[in-house]
Design a protein that fits this description.
Blueprint lengths: L5 H7 L40 H14 L3 E5 L2 H12 L5 E5 L4 H12 L4 E5 L4 H8 L5 E5 L11 H10 L3 E5 L4 H4 L9 E5 L13 E5 L2 H14 L5 H11 L2 H19 L5 E5 L9 H7 L6 E6 L3 H10 L4 E2 L9 E3 L11 H6 L6 E5 L5 H16 L4
Helix pairs in contact: 2-9, 3-4, 3-8, 12-14
This protein binds pyridoxal-5'-phosphate.
The site of pyridoxal-5'-phosphate (PLP) has 16 residues, from helix 3 and helix 4.
């Protein structure tokens, strides 16, 4: 692993690597194909599905930031999940996934399991008994998402990896919500890390992308082979934009957290706010684990509206600086209603089982001035308070 600090790795990636013109910022290679020096002599790159200098630069940077041996940059986070499933799982193999995982992850595992590609078991991974029962079935892969979406549940990655290893299972962690700046699952024992780079890593809500990072060099090579085989790799232009976003990841994560802490303090005083879900809260069941395994609490937060659906609606529509949209991790603040938006692919029963209530709202706190964000929340709550109960 590199001895450079994470912010330095993120900023310096590819800087001054251009040997042609000494460009400080690395150039983008949009080419789909590469010429062979001569017949029978294979160049380093031959076709951009299998390899591209811009995309590989991003993959190497992300692998270094996560302390992995190698990574594959994919067309989206979902493609990274599908890539791991394709490379690792066959009929008869079991994957154990969290019952409250990202909606698209749930749909992907569920749909492919229904086709007979592999088996899936969704469990509450914060329930030690449920987890032990699942591991006793000798899964091939344990999928972890911590903090989880949208309830910010925390799984003890180190403990889970220890238990999983005893049952011969590999562990993959979806690290999208924290980024390597705030959590490095491989250092906690994970075998794979995936990101939807669409979120904090690109950070500007203008690219859909993903990455799958392997701890082990041999696994990394096998995954790269599969990525080429199934055509999961991302576009060079997207990789270029994501490299640009990556350079400011460390300071962005700090400011996201700062704004989020101020908003949490404000929300705690609001009569229309019910339960708040954020690992910084001492009463959050994962608070102590988050302190142990994370380098910050992160800035995603959810809360329930203690009022009617009409009040929730008025509140959401009254906001000016929180756009009603899915996704997260961009410079602009977003608000999402998980039950009808990100998690609508889950049945009502599955939502209820995951503890996801229709009164729940999720905030992706952006980089606007915190005072403006709080003033905006305040005027929207005042409008909602006036709606007849
Ligand atoms: C968005 C997201 C994904 C899926 O990534 P896409 O880039 O949208 O395909 C997976 N996991 C988490 C936690 C996400 O937020």
């Amino acid at each position: 692993m590199s001895d450079k600090k994470l912010a330095t790795i993120a900023v310096r990636t590819g800087i001054e690597s251009d040997t042609q013109h000494n460009a400080v910022v690395p150039p983008i290679y949009l080419t789909s194909t590469y010429s062979f020096p001569q017949l029978g002599e294979l160049p380093q790159y031959d076709y951009s599905r299998s390899g591209n200098p811009t995309r590989n630069m991003l993959a190497d940077a992300l692998a270094e930031l996560e302390g992995g041996a190698g990574g594959v940059v994919t067309s989206c986070g979902t493609a990274a999940i599908n890539l791991l499933a394709s490379a690792l799982l066959g009929p008869g193999d079991l994957v154990v996934a969290p019952h409250d995982c990202y909606g698209g992850t749930y749909r992907l595992f569920n749909t492919r399991a229904n086709k007979g590609d592999f088996k899936v078991l969704f469990v509450d991974q914060t329930d030690p008994e449920a987890l032990a029962q699942a591991l006793a079935q000798e899964p091939k892969l344990v999928w972890v998402e911590t903090p989880s979406n949208p309830l910010l549940r925390i799984v003890d990655v180190e403990a889970l990896c220890r238990d999983a290893k005893q049952h011969g299972a590999l562990v993959a962690v979806d690290n999208t919500f924290l980024s390597p700046i705030l959590q490095q699952p491989i250092s906690l024992g994970a075998d794979f890390v995936i990101h939807s780079t669409t979120k904090y890593i690109n950070g500007h809500s203008d690219v859909v992308g993903g990455v799958l990072i392997s701890k082990d060099a041999e696994q990394a090579e096998e995954i790269a082979w599969w990525a080429n085989c199934i055509g999961a790799t991302g576009a060079p232009f997207d990789a270029y934009l994501t490299l640009r976003g990556l350079r400011t990841l460390a300071p962005r994560m700090r400011l996201h957290e700062e704004n989020s802490a101020k908003i949490l303090a404000y929300l705690q005083q609001q009569p229309l706010v019910g339960q708040i879900y954020h690992p910084s809260q001492p009463e959050h069941p994962g608070h102590e684990i988050a302190i142990k395994q994370q380098k910050g609490f992160g800035s995603m937060l959810s809360f329930e509206i203690a009022g009617t659906y009409a009040q929730l609606e008025t509140f959401v529509h009254g906001l000016k600086f929180f756009s009603l949209a899915e996704s997260l991790g961009g410079t602009e603040s977003l608000i999402c209603h998980p039950a009808s938006m990100t998690h609508r692919a889950m049945s009502d029963e599955a939502q209820a089982e995951a503890g996801l209530k229709p009164s729940l709202l999720r905030l992706s706190v952006g980089l606007e001035d915190a005072d403006d964000l709080i003033a905006d929340l305040d005027q929207a709550f005042k409008q909602a308070a006036e709606v007849a109960e």
